[in-house]
Automatic annotation (TrEMBL):
Entry-linked PANTHER family: OUTER MEMBRANE PROTEIN NMB0088-RELATED
GO molecular function terms noted in the UniProt entry: long-chain fatty acid transporting porin activity
Organism of provenance: Desulfobacter hydrogenophilus
Taxonomic classification: Bacteria, Pseudomonadati, Thermodesulfobacteriota, Desulfobacteria, Desulfobacterales
Protein family membership: Belongs to the OmpP1/FadL family.
Pfam families in the record: Toluene_X
Membrane topology: Multi-pass membrane protein
CC terms in the record's Gene Ontology section: cell outer membrane
Protein name per UniProt: Long-chain fatty acid transport protein
Main subcellular localisation: membrane
Length: 419
């Protein structure tokens, strides 16, 4: 009965209109993901704790520890008023996974970054500072600041991370079915810094926001044969209320932030949305495995406070990877990922403008080398190529027409040790 229920869930989930990640959620957790972009039915490594925890039952008995270092290179462009402002940050993100598997049971844990966009810095300003300039020039702060001047020495920077700690257990329920459940704790930190000089007056608008919350993870793995495996994972929404602090701002900056709804001492809801992840691994030949994955993000059900109106639908991603086992020691992977985000650029808030969520096509290659029975090295590289999007001019806010574009390149180096 239970197997039939989850099979129905799987079929209905695949019927939803068909990175990685949604607007806030991220899935770039491991080197194996960087090399394939499709891990929702993974059973071959400790990083399955993040992608398919019920599939950990298919590991050999033992204790597994995996550490991944993931370098990212970003390229963000804001095109407006005939010019382009660019930010090209670099980031190295560590991720870690641990599993102890014994017969019918497995206990597991992971440290991942499930949301946020790292640090984005525009040394000469961007569309936000241009919008502020237009507001000031239009008399938004008169008579304190005169109308008709320009904003100079502009600067914009945002930094955001969702640090995520997850732990749970998996159980071999049936020869063809295993299940998993876990608890998740997310602690988030966001910093925004906007400043410039207008009519001889310095404007410093800085705010910090912190939040934390709990969520749950459940999973099921269906393995009817050695050639076919199906992974299903559901992550609950994590309720996050961001406490705001603007102590780094001057008086003009505080007044500016209040126009954007950032008031010192107030909280701002920005939940991390729930997601449903489905995957299949199908060994079509002795050395060749197909790995499709599908992920769906329930952003419309999350509380995003003043931006609840901004989402027109839920984001989803669809991926396909292949794995070729050269021999017992080496495996090669390649993958493709498509991300669809249903948020109009006219509705982007401060964070979205700094790190715009756009539709995307991504490609990946990777390799796994089993050095010994206990040591495995994992390499991966992927490139994300986003479709640019244009927001028309908004005379109410003063924002000019702007085109957002970006690209992302990710590497991955991981090492797994089995005791």
């Amino acid at each position: 009965m239970m197997g039939r229920y989850f099979l129905i869930v799987f079929i209905l989930g695949m019927a939803v209109p068909a990175f990685g990640g949604g607007i806030d959620n991220k899935q770039n957790f491991s080197s194996a993901y960087a090399g394939s972009l499709s891990r929702n039915a993974a059973t071959d490594g400790a990083d399955a704790a993040a992608y398919n925890p019920a599939g950990l039952i298919l590991l050999k008995n033992g204790t597994y520890l995996e550490l991944d270092l993931l370098p990212f290179t970003f390229d963000y462009d804001h095109e407006f008023n005939g010019e382009t402002q660019t930010s090209s940050p670099n980031l190295i993100a560590p991720m870690a996974f641990g599993v102890h598997k014994q017969d019918k049971w497995a206990v597991w844990g992971s440290f991942t970054i499930n949301g946020g966009g790292g640090e984005t810095e525009y040394e000469n300003g961007n569309i936000i500072t241009q919008t502020v300039e237009n507001q000031l020039a239009g008399g938004a702060f008169s008579p304190v600041l005169p109308a008709g001047r320009t904003l100079s020495q502009t600067y914009a920077c945002a930094e955001s991370y969702d640090y995520t700690f997850t732990a749970g257990v998996s159980y071999d329920l049936h020869p063809m079915v295993s299940v998993a459940a876990g608890l998740r704790y997310v602690i988030t930190d966001k910093e925004v810094d906007l400043h410039g000089t207008y009519s001889g007056a310095d404007i410093m608008a800085k705010y910090d926001q912190e939040a934390d919350g709990y969520g749950g993870v459940i999973g099921i793995d269906i393995h009817p044969s050695d050639a076919l495996n199906i992974g299903i994972r559901y992550e609950s929404k994590v309720k996050l209320d961001w406490d705001t602090e603007t102590s780094g701002s001057n008086a003009l900056g505080i007044a500016l932030l209040e126009r954007y709804g950032r008031v010192d001492g107030q909280s701002y809801a920005r939940d991390l949305p729930a997601l449903l992840a489905l995957g299949v691994e199908w060994k079509i030949l002795p050395k060749l495995t197909l790995k499709p994955s599908f992920s769906y993000y329930f952003e419309e059900d999350a509380d995003w406070d003043t931006q609840n109106y901004a989402v027109d639908g839920n984001s989803y991603e669809l991926a396909l990877a292949i794995q070729y086992d050269v021999n017992d020691d080496w495996s090669l992977t390649a993958g493709y990922l498509y991300i669809n985000v249903d948020m109009k650029p006219e509705n982007f808030g401060i964070i979205e403008q700094m790190n715009p969520p756009l539709d995307c096509h991504a490609f990946a290659v990777g390799a796994k080398y089993r050095v010994t029975e206990k040591v495995t090295l994992i390499l991966g590289f992927s490139g994300y190529f986003y479709e640019d999007a244009t927001a028309s001019a908004d005379p109410v806010t003063g924002r000019p027409e702007v085109t957002y574009d970006k690209a992302l390149y990710q590497g991955g180096f991981g090492i797994q040790y089995r005791f």
